[in-house]
Amino acid sequence: MKVSVVRRYESKLGDSDFHPYRTGAWTPNTVEVDATDLDVIAGEIPRDLAGLYLRNTENPLFEAITGRYHPFDGDGMVHALRFQEGRAEYRNRFVKTAGLLAELEAGGALWAGILESPEASQRDGWGARTRMKDASSTDILVHRGEALTTFYQCGDAYRLDPYTLETRGTVHWSEQTQGNPGVRGVFPKGATVSAHPKVDEQTGELLFFNYSKEAPFMHFGVINAEGKLARYVPVPLPGPRLPHDMAFTENYAILNDFPMMWDPERLAKNQHRPVYRPELGSRFGIVRRDGTGSVRWFEASPTYVLHFSNAYEEGDEIILEGYHQGAPIPKRLEGETAIDAFRKSLDMRELQTRLHRWRFNLSTGQTKEAFLDDEVTEFPTIDNRLGGRKHRKVIAMTGEPGHFLFNGLVAYDVERGTKQSYRFPEGVFASESPIAPRTGARGEADGYVVTFVSDLGNDSSECQVFDAGEIARGPIARIRLPHRISSGTHATWVSEEDLAKHRAR
Ligand SMILES: [Fe+2]
Q1: Do 129 and 480 meet the contact criterion of CB atoms below 8 Å apart?
Q2: Which of 69, 172, 285, 315 is the most exposed place for a label (fewest CB within 10 A)?
Q3: Residues 6+ positions from 199 with CB-CB distance below 8 Å
Q4: What cofactor requirement does the entry state (predicted)?
Q5: Using a CB cutoff of 8 Å and minimum separation of 24, what contacts does 402-407 make?
């Protein structure tokens, strides 16, 4: 393996930092490196695996302003593993957000984190809550050959070269609204994008949403295959909500109104404390992707959903699949410390996340819903070529009790109702694990599952490749990374074939 250090960042977290999300698997990375000819320590890299595994992570460089850190405050850093002709190369770079650059210049934190009051921020900023730093650390996807990173509380979408990970700036869709008569709706300057935009690989469109404290509280938008804003329409909600994900089918986008919100009484005093109000029920808003017609709302059992796996149309029905939470805000027990309560809030077993299917009947307006599995899993990925179309295969992660860490993989066949599982060894934690179709793949999930793992026992990381059809066998290739990488949230796969289409432009 040949490694070159590109840049070392000075970390000012202090030696006395024992926060559970700044230590162990969450110890931040502060060095950017390039590495080629990575060592394959077991198995062999398949020659028909060609593309990039891209992983976004959270890496704080500075102490939180008032010392109340949350893992989602960390600055976005993307790690990329490129597979080509049986070889692998790696690089990692911070997303050079406006917030990170300003804090580097100031030499300290300028924006309050999630657990701190926005009033502690020294500057105006981003985020549905307002006055936050847009860390662009939550999600990553590839649209039109370019990687886009986004932030869960809404911010700019940052554009990155998928190979070099160089930050190219932010998207400027508001500027496209002028002089473009085909646009339905106006994307105002300063409007933001939530994490989890979706790419429809069959049409090349990018679908997105955002949310805020201002009426109508949510918007849905479409960027066309040419990269231009095509639609931006309101999805009016009864008040501010805290959505995280959306879904789409061939003709519709599916937004949501879950009873998860900032406590309205506290919000009136500019305090932001999430409350869950199950008595309000859940609603799903179905809107045509062409922007015509109004939002159709479907009622459903109360819950909160962090992630949907997919949605599709079947006859009169729209079928949506995702992770229903049994306890969106886990109960705080008597005598429990604040840090334990905080750990529980990120523990999928406490949230009781189970794969669920909703069926919305467009003729009758009725909703039917049912669990697909009893096991607690989350962070679903599908073969992205089937986004918005009927799928069978879902890869999901199992959670380590008491932590926001993934200790295993589950591969579902949701049509047959079967699954395969793989459990990582003790102390080894994986990343979100997308399906990587083999070059010239013939069917759904014909290929591999790719993930990064960190081994706390020897402070190291690997990339592991699984056969998508046989994950229970364990990894078929293990590739050593040049350093241990921090845990994070989302990852994606993009094939060399897809990137080549856009390079020719
Ligand atoms: Fe997410």
Answers
A1: no
A2: 315
A3: 141, 142, 143, 205, 206, 207, 384, 387
A4: Fe(2+)
A5: 402/343, 402/344, 402/347, 403/20, 403/25, 403/343, 403/346, 403/347, 404/21, 404/71, 404/343, 404/346, 404/347, 404/487, 405/25, 405/429, 405/487, 406/379, 406/430, 406/431, 406/432, 406/433
- Which residue spans within 238-383 are E strands per DSSP? 247-248, 252-257, 260-262, 274-276, 282-288, 296-300, 305-314, 317-325, 353-361, 367-376, 378-381
- The strand pair at 87-94 and 75-84 is best described as antiparallel
| C-alpha of residue 505 to centroid of ligand 1, in Å | 31
Is residue 417 within 8 A of residue 432, CB to CB? The reply is no
Tell me if 478 sits within 8 A of 428, measured CB to CB: no
Q: Check if the beta carbon of residue 437 is closer than 8 Å to that of residue 494.
A: no
How far is 100 from 103, CA to CA, in rounded Å? 5
Task: Tell me the domains of the chain and their CATH numbers.
Answer: 2-503 (2.130.10)
CA atoms within 13 A on the CB side of 104: 13
Q: Is 131 left (phi over 0), alpha (psi -120 to 50) or beta?
A: left
Lookup: tokens for 473: 């066998």
Q: What is the DSSP letter of 346?
A: T
Q: Which residues, given as ranges, of the chain have pLDDT below 70?
A: 15-17, 177-182, 504-505
- Residue 68 pLDDT: 87
Residues constituting the chain: 505
- Nearest Cα to Cα of residue 130 among 211, 75, 65: 211
Taking the C-alpha atoms of residue 251 and residue 248, their distance in angstroms, rounded to an integer, is 8
Q: 432 C-alpha to center of ligand 1: Å? A: 10
196 is in an annotated binding site: yes
- β-strand 435-437 against 447-455: which pairing, if any? antiparallel
In what helix (H) or strand (E) does residue 343 lie, and over which residues does it extend? Answer: helix 338-345
Distance 150 CA to ligand 1 centre (A): 10
Distance of CA 247 from the midpoint of ligand 1 (Å): 12
Residue 28: both structure tokens together: 């931040």
For residues 429 and 451, give the distance between their C-alpha atoms in angstroms, rounded to a whole number: 10
307 is in an annotated binding site: yes
Read off the pTM: 0.96
What pLDDT, on a 0 to 100 scale, did the predictor assign at position 85? Answer: 96
* pLDDT value for 504: 62
